[in-house]
Amino acid sequence: MHDEIDGLRLIDAWISADEAAALLCAIDAEAWRADLSRRVQHYGWRYDYKARSIDASMRLGPLPPWAEALADRVEREGLSARPEQVIVNEYEPGQGIAAHIDCVPCFGPVVLSLSLGSGCAMDLRREGAAPRAITLAPRSLLALSGEARLAWKHGIAARKSDVIDGVRVARGRRVSVTFRTVRIESER
Ligand SMILES: O=C(O)CCC(=O)C(=O)O
Asked: Which of 36, 57, 81, 131 has the fewest C-beta atoms under 10 angstroms from its C-beta?
């Protein structure tokens, strides 16, 4: 558990440098969607950002082999029930993601995010609490459950550098791989 936020767990070096390089290669060989301000890939289930919904028509098919292998590992290590949906986000320096709570009726109780490429600072905000920032190091796995999943918003500021332990660190290209279980309409 993280010192300050219930349900926040950050596992450094969850994968090796070789695994990270191979994953980036596999991801870059896939097609990117460019309909947001950043490029994304969706697997397992498509997610509608505007409607904030998932229904049975949005099933895309099985995860690609590299994502299946990671989902196996997540399940084996007891980090979450087996993830069924993966979103890959690409952030060039200067790009971020608005503070949000992942759709509660769409996704299960644990959200996981693997960082590839560059690290970055992630901001966490909850009404009535002081904002926090955590450092997502390359190859780290962030697990959000409990209050960290349901009560705290997480986001990444759109900027080109972060101050980490008092030192300004330039961002490079970061690719995150998020894993979720899905709660579809017919199962609610
Ligand atoms: O890039 C990340 O680590 C977070 C991604 C995220 O919050 C999302 O896809 O909803």
From this structure: 57
| Cβ atoms of 61 and 120 closer than 8 Å | no
Residue 14 identity (one-letter amino acid): W
97 close to ligand 1 (CB < 6 Angstrom): yes
Distance from the alpha carbon of residue 113 to the mean position of ligand 1, in angstroms: 7
Is residue 95 lining ligand 1, measured as CB closer than 6 Å? no
Give the whole-angstrom CA distance, residue 25 versus residue 27. Answer: 5
Residue located nearest, by CA, to atom 10 of ligand 1: 102
Q: For the chain, which domains are there?
A: 8-187 (2.60.120.1520)
Specify the pairing of strand 153-156 against strand 97-100. Answer: antiparallel
The pTM assigned to this predicted structure is 0.95
Please report the atom of ligand 1 found closest to the CA of residue 176. Answer: 1
Nearest to 156 by CA among 77, 96, 107: 96
